[in-house]
Design goal:
Helix content is about 45%, strand content about 20%. Strand 2 and strand 3 form a beta hairpin. The protein has a 5-stranded mixed β-barrel. The protein is built from 9 helices and 5 strands, in the order E-E-E-H-E-E-H-H-H-H-H-H-H-H. The chain folds into 3 domains: about 60 residues, OB fold (Dihydrolipoamide Acetyltransferase, E2P); about 80 residues, Orthogonal Bundle (DNA polymerase, domain 1); about 50 residues, Helicase, Ruva Protein, domain 3 (Orthogonal Bundle), CATH 1.10.8. By secondary structure, the chain is an alpha+beta fold. The N and C termini lie far apart (about 50 Å).
């Protein structure tokens, strides 16, 4: 199985890139948002998910291991194949997608082309608890991802048994109220709000 490719982008299509690795061109399907960052003639390193079918061996590439892990979680959902998973990941930034799944944000998920209400419900139901480890996915937009301290706080509260949506709401309230401090202080404040 191919797990990683490092080479040069030699061609781009609507949904894939061709990566030249030592004279061999590999066609790699990538999410639309990642596609915009890949330029022909530039070096690239992609984390690869190798998908084997009866009639084909397909490569799906991602900038980070966490994004590859998110893709694998998506294709494990009943009724979601690799193409639809790639479409879902192309519909919003990875950190936003993880947040929407954790919060059961059906409205945001339904805005992704090809994802209806029933699919959004199934995604949330099957992935809500599985994506908590991916909460620290980086966002390319400045200030869009929570700090490492807030990620630790989220993880700690979920591990204590609180529902991810309630934890998200409590952390958002802390941020909106301008509460700051070390981890212990934030944990105490969040626990007060969760009671």
């Amino acid at each position: 199985m191919i797990a990683r490719l490092r080479g040069t982008v030699v061609a781009k299509t609507v949904d894939s890139v061709t990566v030249d690795v030592g004279g061999v061109g590999y066609r790699v399907f990538v999410p639309m948002l990642a596609m915009s960052q890949l330029l022909v003639g530039e070096a690239v390193e992609l984390q690869i998910h190798t998908h084997v079918r009866e009639d084909a061996l397909l490569l799906y590439g991602f900038p980070t291991d966490d994004e590859k892990s998110l893709f694998r979680l998506l294709i494990a959902v009943s009724g979601i194949g690799p193409k639809q998973a790639l479409n879902i990941m192309g519909g919003m930034e990875a950190d936003e997608l993880v947040g929407a799944l954790r919060r059961d944000d059906l409205k945001a998920l339904s805005r992704i082309p090809g994802v209806g209400k029933k699919t959004a419900e199934r995604l949330c139901y099957e992935l809500r608890d599985k994506v908590t480890n991916l909460a620290a996915l980086p966002s390319p937009k400045a200030g869009a991802s929570p700090s490492a301290l807030l990620d630790d706080l989220l993880s700690a509260l979920v591990n204590l048994g609180y529902k991810p949506k309630l934890v998200d709401d409590a952390i958002t309230a802390l941020a909106n109220d301008g509460v700051s401090g070390d981890f212990q202080t934030l944990l105490r404040e969040a626990l007060k709000r969760l009671r």
